[in-house]
Amino acid sequence: MGRKPCCSKEGLRKGTWTAKEDMLLTNYINEHGEVGWRSLPMKAGLLRCGKSCRLRWVNYLKPGIKRGNFTSEEEDLIVRLYNLLGSRWSLIAGRIPGRTDNEIKNYWNTHLLKKLKSEGLEPKIHKSLAKNTRRQKEKANVSSQINQKGYKEKKKRNKKGNIEENCNNIEEKEQVAKKIEEQWHTQDSVQAMSGFSSTSEVASEKETNCNNVHCPSSGQSLEENDNEIYEKLQVIDELLLNDNCLLPTECTEFNSESQMLEVYEEYFQLVSENSFYHFQDYAHSFAEFGQDDL
DNA sequence: AAGTACATCAACCGCACGCAT
DNA sequence: GATGCGTGCGGTTGATGTACT
């Protein structure tokens, strides 16, 4: 039995959104939150498909979305991440604050690809489609250690906000990254990851934000929160930015490409779920790094 | 000014997955 | 385990803008 369409297409508007539609959607979500996309259009008084509403919100209306040109740091990061992960735009977007998968995808296809080719830098060709990759992963039995039940249990726990298990996994992966941990990266790399442009800016941002930051899910202050996980993430970040590990074939830290991708998928999932803290932690680390360095 | 080609990017579409039943 | 629903993802399309003739 095939899937029903996500919504009846009769009488629904398509194409570019008007300012009035944007306002209706924004007002509704501000009041009720991002819940029930299917029923949202009717409740908000919009003649749009729920998927269309979600896309509009996620890509353009949601607060914190950065518009405008990509910086060279962002470009560099996108290229690195593409080399690692291929067209997993949502994962890549999760690593670049304020940018959406759609925007990055468009930018890649219209600008970066041409730019790289003109510079004689052919990007690594990845097997297209994440869904195929997932199938390949299944075939390769990458997650053979995790049976279906265990996997579901793990997901449930994660959803409840319990990141302890992930943390332990990262800890295991940390052993893999340990060898190159000492190769601390240049300030440029850290800046690219943190989104700040100078040490003083980072320090200032740290001062402004870190003192009174609260966890959206638990309400814990940053000080109370477990910073350990972010230190671990940082180690993986180091690995991520290690030029020697840009291409799985050149990276000796993993036994196989699938193993490497598994580590990164888990990592990105974790980062996406906790991106705000990670961002702050990076600022924190960078400030300390700058101080130690002086 | 008009016509055409090309570039850009917002939005759509189909599929797969997680979850509830 | 089977089924259906809601959601998110990645590939693609097409409307619009811009450059060129």
Overview of this structure, please?
This is Myb-related protein 308-like. This protein is mainly alpha-helical and 294 residues long. 60% of the residues lie in helices and 0% in strands. It contains 14 helices and no strands.
User: What gyration radius follows from the Cα positions, in whole Å?
Assistant: 21 Å
CATH structural architecture of the domain at 72-119: Orthogonal Bundle
Mean pLDDT: 57
Major sheet characteristics: none
Residue share in helix: 55-70%
- The counted number of beta strands is 0
The shape, in one word, is elongated
Strand pairing plus helix content: what structural class?
mainly alpha
Low-confidence stretches: 1-5, 127-230, 242-251, 274-294
* CATH fold-level topology of the domain at 72-119: Arc Repressor Mutant, subunit A
Beta-strand fraction estimate: under 5%
CATH superfamily of the domain at 72-119: Homeodomain-like
Return the CATH class of the domain at 72-119. Mainly Alpha
Measured distance between first and last alpha carbons: 66 Å
Count up the helices. 14
